[in-house]
Amino acid sequence: MNTVTKEASNLGQKRLLHLIETKQAIVGVLGMGYVGFPLALECVDKGYNVIGFDKNSEKVSLLAAGSSHIQDIEDDRLNSALQTKRFQISADMSLIQKCDIIVICVPTPLNKKDKIPDLTYIDSAVDSMIAYGRQHQLLILESTTYPGTTKKKIADRMASSRGMKIGTDFFTAYSPERIDPGNRQYEVSDIPKVVGGTTQTCTELASAFYSTIVTSIHPVTSPEVAETAKLLENTYRYVNIALINEMALNCRELDIDIWEVICAADTKPFGFQKFIPGPGVGGHCIPIDPFYFKWIANEKGLQTKLIDLADEINSNMPISVSDYALKLAGKDKCSILIIGAAYKKNTNDPRESSVFTIMEELMDKGCAIDYHDPFISEIRLNDGSRKQSVPFTKEQINQYDVIIIHTDHDVIDYSILKDVSPIIFDTRNVCKEKSADNCRVVTL
């Protein structure tokens, strides 16, 4: 690099740092989903001009009209952001050239057939940045992925396609999202951010940006460390959920109350972290992230025995629930009402919810299945058929042979379940906690 080029690059990074420190930087967030949308709003709240990108034109129109598609985020907050005139929502990727900072918050699903990573959305985002990006932009990936993605999919592709040098002409970093949908205790600004840049300059710029948004930054030496840290966080949870699920199934056969066991163990003030069993592992993180680590490890000829065993246990839970519900009914072709379709309480998110497997298992065996969810009015099953949420009234409930409590939303009045005719299969132990105990309640 000659002296003139080096000075221009130094001026570029100094200008970017100045824009960050004065909050004059324009922030582009690619993906207005459960991660990108709250991040974009937080950036607006902190004083930045923000462009929220999404290729779903229907979602863009909805948001631009002030209607939030995420239950955690009220319309009032979205409208407040829009009224500042510092929040724009667009499907026009050419606006990327206006941005000083671009944060990628797109889905990273698995190929359902063989559970291998699907980085289609990241590749598409990078295609847009190659087409419309410019010098001296800071590109940050937040989507969960396997180690090496930031370098190979973003840094190396941008460098080779645009002829720019990483760390001088443009800057790349990885900072894993840690959004917890439905958890009002931890907002975006409260959750510490792990930041790993491709170069030291990249780390410093990304850390400077996030320090204007969140209260705590933890820089690491590389994107790979940050990428693996996120996979560890959720693999840890997946494996421990498998342990407590196996304990629950075995305790039921031993005629021991697993919920009382957990409560007793939780009195230990050290060395124990409480996990609870459930009908299956759902959502966009926990049942997916371990397989990103498994894939990269297996690609290198390494084994992931514990992840494999945890997958076997967790994947079997919805089948175990459906089988036990049939046993409780005591007859074939029974009628069953499932309470809650979301993967997690107090959310309207059915992604990867175990309710789909439970429904399909029971329907395949000739059962008539309905569901009630106050936050999800309609669901689409894997065969393309649709079901609508039914009313939650005593009259409706008494039509069924078995009630399965799948998702324990707080807004549901569980006292309605007192003295109803059906057997209640409570997979969340909510009846006892909500004072709706019933002699016909059976727990997981």
TrEMBL record:
Keywords: NAD, Oxidoreductase. InterPro entries: 6-PGluconate_DH-like_C_sf, NAD(P)-bd_dom_sf, UDP-Glc/GDP-Man, UDP-Glc/GDP-Man_DH_C, UDP-Glc/GDP-Man_DH_C_sf, UDP-Glc/GDP-Man_DH_dimer, UDP-Glc/GDP-Man_DH_N, UDP_ManNAc/GlcNAc_DH. SMART domains: UDPG_MGDP_dh_C. Residues 337-433 form the UDP-glucose/GDP-mannose dehydrogenase C-terminal domain. Pfam families: UDPG_MGDP_dh, UDPG_MGDP_dh_C, UDPG_MGDP_dh_N. NCBIfam families: NDP-sugDHase. This is Nucleotide sugar dehydrogenase.
